[in-house]
Design brief:
single chain, 149 residues, alpha+beta, 5-stranded antiparallel beta sheet, 3 helices
């Protein structure tokens, strides 16, 4: 990418990563281009003529890329998030998922009631231990009894 050909107010892709962590990219707008090819984006980040972020180690740095490449990565990321959300909704529809939600909400409700009447999470961690015990009791009850329809 020849950064000296870029113009202020032009859109450019910023590539973060596309690996086992997932995919991440953004589309940003250029604020300034120096005669030597250094790019400053409107968010304040600077990039050298090779497209690497200035002041960040190369391992953690972001890179400039084309808008098309950034859009493809954004679309891939959105598709992955949507797939995970659909899988989670399908899990919640199963009896096991409903058990997990029931356990979670019952524990939250019990702790909220205690907090409402003055028993707040204490420094010694006793409330955390009690929360875990409540969770185990509810989990045991739900494993022994089926829901009533």
């Amino acid at each position: 990418m020849n950064t000296t050909e870029l113009k202020p107010n032009q859109k450019i892709g910023v590539f973060y990563h596309d690996d086992n962590r997932g995919a991440k990219a953004k589309i940003e707008e250029i604020a300034k281009v120096s005669p030597t090819g250094y790019i400053t984006l409107k968010n304040g980040k600077r990039y050298n003529p090779k497209g690497y972020e200035v002041g960040i180690e190369i391992i953690d740095a972001t890179f400039l890329c084309s808008v098309e490449k950034a859009q493809a990565i954004i679309d891939k990321s959105l598709a992955f998030k949507q797939k995970k959300e659909e899988e989670y909704k399908a899990y919640l529809a199963t009896p096991e998922g409903q058990r997990q939600i029931a356990i979670q909400e019952a524990v939250q409700a019990a702790i909220q009631i205690l907090n409402k009447y003055g028993w707040y999470a204490d420094v010694d961690g006793h409330m955390d231990v009690m929360e875990s015990e409540i969770k185990q009791i509810i989990k045991k009850y739900l494993s022994e009894h089926e829901p009533i329809d």
